[in-house]
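Supplementary Methods S3. Complex input for the aspartic acid-bound model.
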Amino acid sequence: MSFTRRSFLKSTSLAIAGIGLARPVIANPLNEGGDGYLIVISTWDHGLPANEAAWKILEEGGTALDAVEAGVKVPEADPNVSTVGYGGFPDKSGKVTLDACIMDHLGQAGSVAFLQHIKHPISVARLVMEKTPHVMLTGKGALKFALKNGFKKEKLLTPEMKKEWKKWKKRGGQFKPTINIEDEINTNHDTIGMLALDADGKIAGACTTSGMAYKLHGRVGDSPIIGAGLYVDGEVGGAVATGSGELVMKTLGSFLVVELMRSGLNPKEACLEAVRRIIKKNPGYEQHQVGYIALNKKGGYGSFCIQKGFHYALKTNQFTGLKESEAFLKVR
Ligand code: ASP
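Predicted complex, serialized as structure tokens:
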């Protein structure tokens, strides 16, 4: 029997209506390790080299916090990653503006939003966490803080991205929040979010992005918002989000995932429930992608997303590679 996207959507909405968004029963992937178990998990395929950098630190006995910072700095510095840091897509006005945040096992948090000219926003976010009484700095204030703390002012718009932006303007310059659904090759945004567990059993997370391609100048997404793009609570675990930031922000997705794990759901179940919350509250969700990954304090991990096509990078002593996330909409 052929199963079209339309018939799937219909049956899905019936199923939602029928079961009243009841808690799903999913085989628990758990995969939890014992004492000293190391694990790093991050979004998309740019997570593979990022995980390697994080793993090196974990293996040498370093902290999860150092690991996630070093890990996400890899795509931040890579001009070929068009959705994070240097070489990221610009906004509508041709400017690359970056969002990032970081959290440790104690729930300490630092964040920067709408930051320009700095290649490693994640390191600025960490400094905000460690050197200021605040959690978040934005825009010019964040830039001033970074420069004062030794960061270099750099040009983040690469010639390739400038060309892309000009082509987009020629095509009419329409902003499309329908993220990577019709066209997975021309990725227009994909944040790196990373969670790691170190040998002391401490968990940390980081999240960094250039946001949605051609967004309005000044737009800030979920990625630097504590609880939306990232949340970590050392007593429970952590979660990060990627995809349509507006949907994640409106449901405080990563916080929700962590709270669901606190109340007993496994990481994958918690991610699914957070996806269901988005679906319940956002008609038109079919036009969006959101993916969550989660890690509990014992090293159990899981993910869930709206659309098929989200994958995440995983590294443990037994496994290095990409995993496909289960999706709410199984057919495109
Ligand atoms: N969540 C990011 C944002 O909305 C984009 C993404 O992860 O794809 O800025």
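Residues 179, 189-191, 209, 211-212, 221-223, 242-245 surround aspartic acid (CB under 6 Å). Residues 37 and 91 are 41 Å apart (CA to CA).
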